């Protein structure tokens, strides 16, 4: 690492102390017009001579010995739009780019593999990552300098200086790029010293890690003591599971308190449902208004589990409103979900979602307006920027109703009426841009969330939506050999990444457990076997992020750390663990255990970035409960069991017969639906009542 930083400093000096050479007059044209990505299409009419990533651009860079500028973003990224308007639409800036660089635009949601490699390079330079990501490469695709957003004047200066350094000091550039490439090409297991396997999973070790994590809790606003604040669904899922295994009420209380703050804040769309990507402040008040499918899918699971635990109808309402948002604004006619909604409309962040006092006064009945403004904290001068109001709540509905001496049912009818009025009028506005890519992995996260929503609430509408979405994925995104596509696109084939396989497998496993239709389980197994054959590294016992037939980049990465989306390896390890118990397949469980053992010591140093691994760790503290149900009422019995919170379990069932190991020798005794509760390959005596089975589950 020291060598990398040294070379980086040398190249930094070279860039900023170079002289200006005479510019080239060569011109070409923008090559993005035929791309399918909404993000690339947004740039198709820039005066910049953009190329998509591919052989044509890379070959041209070598032929002309020009540095490559790779600019990575995504369609709902606010600062990506800002930099486009300031710089990429400016003809003077474009001239500098066109004369000195081969410029490549990349949609990070289509090519997260490329984004991973060059984001790693930025971090190795000691810089904070983010989007837009702008990285300068040699014609051999090796990075030597980069950053994120640059204002127009700074960007123009940087372009000139980088070009000069490349022409006048090529050896320094080459040395820097070589050192950086060597660093980012290192195996993640080697980089983080993960050579040892620790297959011991004591509770005390977890308690110590939780205690360290809890030091960062924000007891005033919920979440953690920092801003901006991201929901981080899997981190709060871990806290729910930790509370369950330890009976630690403080962990549960803080999680539910945080979920209340999130659902009451501006980060949650109080009118239309659904969550924005993050809050820019510590109070969950002012969102960065983009809405991502992956957030909303995972938050459905989180609020479903909170509802299972608390039976708080406010969580059920959030679940329902979020699903209605997904159906209304994110659903393709054939059943797939779109990727994202932009933060901006009419080139202004949040314009679609905010209201002036006068607008609201016009729409809400006069006699209800004082109550409305109190409920949503509306101010005449605006509670946000430029005289606008973000609708948010300071207290839960029960508290508000008591404070204002209202009847709960009457007030609920009022809030429904207000939302209908404002939603109807909001629909007349110019909508934010829609990223209409359908990404398989994000659909897997949404499928999982909708399955959890159904099992927690028993709302049949949710089950129908899950089946529609799963059918779309199965029929449109999985090829005959169990190969999964990244995106649904009839013109462009992008192979699925490990993240896609892992999330879709999880979704199909969840769907099997609420339908007992074994075709979903069979599909999950096929995808798992494909992933093992094409992604697994036998040497290090982890999965690569890319298929072994994918394009060879300058580094082949393994994704280990959980973030807003859990790491693809932690998802795969969890899938293998659950499938192993459903199928009675020790091979799957052993692979999962080995992966967890590799991460064991590292995860405990910082659970914030390994929370899904930590949830899998919890599953090893007590044996997994395997529930087999046979008989005509098997689905109804399963639904009732699943509506209560017990995370470390699998549920299998059949009306008559199944060849699954746990069901094969079992029957409905005397024609009565029969429940078998098992642990460690040992089953209790069969029972016929759900309450008796539940006592055995929680014993």
Automatic annotation (TrEMBL):
InterPro entries: 6-hairpin_glycosidase_sf (IPR008928), 6hp_glycosidase-like_sf (IPR012341), Ssp411 (IPR024705), Ssp411-like_TRX (IPR004879), Thioredoxin-like_sf (IPR036249). Signal peptide: none annotated. GO terms for biological process: carbohydrate metabolic process. CDD domains: SSP411. Residues 30-184 form the Spermatogenesis-associated protein 20-like TRX domain. It holds the Pfam family Thioredox_DsbH. Gene3D superfamilies: 1.50.10.10, 1.50.10.20, Glutaredoxin (3.40.30.10). This is Thioredoxin domain-containing protein.
